[in-house]
Every structure is written in C-alpha cells, then in structure tokens.
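Many introductory courses stop at the sequence. We go one step further.
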Amino acid sequence: MKSQRAFTLIEVLIAILLISVVSGVVATSLVSNIRLNAEGRVREQAITAAHSWIERFKAKTLDFSAFQSGNTYDYHYRYSSDSTFVAAGDPDPTALDEEWGNFKFHVQTWQLNTNPLIWRVKITTYYRKPGGGEGHFSVETAIRQ
C-alpha cells in the first residue's frame, strides 16, 4: 500500500505567510512606481508651462520691465483678467488660465545690458505633487530685446 503525502497545517500556514510577504512587497513597489510616474507627468507639464513663459518673453509679447520687481502668480490665477497678459495680444487669454492654472509662478526680470538691451529672466515654477506636497524648479535665461 502506498502512503499518501499531504500538507501539514504548518506547511500551509508557512506558504500563506510567504505569499503574503511577497504580495506586500510587490504591491508596495507598484504603488511607488505609479506615484513616481504621476509626479513625472505633472513635473513635465510644469516644465512645459515654464518654457511657455520663456517663449512669450522671447517673442516679446510680455513687457520685461513689468516683472522687474518680481511677480508671483498663485495656483488658479486668472491670467485672462490681468491687463499684462491681455495687452500682450494673446489670441486666447483664457487658454493661459488652462495652461498655467495648475501651477504657481514667480517671475522676475533684470536688465543685464543696455547696448544691446539684454534681460535676464527667471521663472520659478511650483507644482503640487500627486501624493501630496509641493515641488518646484527654476528656469533662467538671457534674452536680447
């Protein structure tokens, strides 16, 4: 007669414990990766918005001297109601509300040279991280007017 081999209760409990530990590690890793990917997407949108500011200065649609004292634009600022942006001749100032509304900016300009006229432009962009908290970075360039 052959003896039948069965799992003991202790073997089953050890298997369940191992599966639980491995599942916990995998789940933690997945959540962390999802959070990092989400933050990367938000940061990329913030970088695009900051470069949009720089492009507007390069196109000379924004008045450099209007930012010499440093202007801060909080989250959900209404750019379409601000005379600085309406006067810039943007064809759709409400698009700025959508493009820049999820970010906070501090914009400052300095005159570096008078002949030729060269301005230093610094855009500090703040963004809300998906997991909580706030991130920021600065973009700085010199632009000949």
